[in-house]
Amino acid sequence: MRKLLTTASLGLAAAVTLTGCGAKVEHDDGKAAKAEAVTVTNCGEKVTYDKRPERVVTNDIGITELMFALGLEDRMAGYAMPDDKGSLTGVPYKDAYDKVKWISKDRVTKENALAAHADLVFAGWNYGFNENALTPDELHKAGIGTYLLTESCRNARTGTSRGIMPPLDALYTDLDNLGKIFGVEARATKLIGEYKAKVAAVRAKAPAKRPSVFLYDSGQDQPFTSGRYAAPEQIISEAGGVNILHDLKDSWTTVGWETVVKRNPDVIVVNDYGATSARKKRDFLLSYPPLRNVSAIKNKRVYVLDYADLVESPRNPSAIERLGGYLREVADAG
User: Fold this and answer.
1) Which of 46, 175, 213, 312 has the smallest C-beta neighbourhood within 10 Å, fewest atoms?
2) Is 177 helix (H, G, I), strand (E, B) or coil?
3) What is the Cα–Cα distance from 45 to 305, expressed in whole angstroms?
4) What are the residues facing 216 on neighbouring strands?
5) Where does the Fe/B12 periplasmic-binding domain lie (predicted)?
6) Separation CA 115–CA 119 (nearest Å)
């Protein structure tokens, strides 16, 4: 079991301890109480947090909005996020974004976490953490705790691929864990219940003949896409479709165009982010000669979802609802 926020290097320990030592938090019942140590299971490992984090730094939009969905923006010291995720104007958590400092338009680093006096970094493998740039152990040595996004957890059976549970289960697991860590269990439980009800309502209307779907993230020589362990898998299935790469035991990964052509999707969902606009991605797909006989291309069935819809985030249930409506139209058209 890993225990966090208990020991720290001398310089940072003083800064971190001052933010949390003796602090009182408002629990869901409205009563102020001293925070007690909390143990949760994160990526298959039991982790103990000795106090409720007060200066959290998050990496990327989905992770940041998990904090916002639970009303925890006041516990945040900042967020790191590339500015290729679209405008933050009109997003569901605009007020929260306005309150929290955007500390980096790249990714979280040990340096910007230290500069923010962070006591916890909430990120994931390939969502801020990687072996060549920043690992949780590096932050632990600097006295900074970590929480790993469950969608990004490494699968012990394969050793390299990410994903240990269905994507929506990962979302609910993180909301439940965060509720315990920050003392907002009732808020987390209510949110999980609302999300499950919304998804169930869409599932109940799924067409008898489910359209097959290919998720296109980026890439021209080879497409970057989603296997069964990333959020798009369950977004597609709960919306009433079938991910053509359901058998791919990985999360986000690359395949060959020949696989897409062979599996002949009825619909292509485009991930809208990055330097290449969704319109340009769509134009490429519709004009790429190897795809000309693919059903989705012949019928111009290309549907766009935002990046924040397609990574683990509070926007997943809404994405399921919107995509579900489109897939029912496709099924009805025959």
Assistant:
1) 46
2) helix
3) 33
4) 270
5) 55-334
6) 11
Residue 289 burial by Cβ neighbours in a 10 Å radius (0-12, 13-18, 19+)? exposed
Reading the block at residue 304, the tokens are 């766009």
Question: How far apart are the C-alpha atoms of 52 and 36, rounded to whole Å?
Answer: 8
For domain 207-333, which CATH number applies: 3.30.1050.10, 3.40.50.10420, 3.20.20.70, 3.40.50.1980? 3.40.50.1980
Residues in a beta bridge with 307: none
Give the pLDDT confidence of 222-236 residue by residue, as tens digits.
Answer: 999 999 888 999 999
Q: In this predicted model, what pLDDT tens digit does every residue of 137-165 receive, in sequence order?
A: 999 999 999 999 999 998 755 555 677 88
Report, in angstroms and rounded to the nearest whole number, the Rg of the chain calculated over CA atoms.
Answer: 21
Give Cα separations from 256 to 161, 221, 245, 253 (angstroms).
18, 8, 11, 11
Alpha-carbon distance of 71 to 75, in angstroms, equals 9
User: pLDDT tens across 196-245, in order?
Assistant: 999 999 999 999 999 999 999 999 999 999 998 889 999 999 999 999 99
Cα dihedral 303/274/191/173 (nearest 10)? 110
The arithmetic mean of pLDDT across residues 173-177, rounded, is 98
Q: What pLDDT does residue 150 have?
A: 94
- The domain limits of the chain are 2-199, 207-333
What is the topology classification, in CATH, of domain 2-199?
Answer: Rossmann fold (3.40.50)
DSSP string computed for 217-263: -B-SSS-EEE-TTSHHHHHHHHHT-EETTTT--SSEEE--HHHHHHH
Same fold? 2-199, 207-333: yes
Helix (H) or strand (E) holding 310: helix 307-310
SS3 118: coil
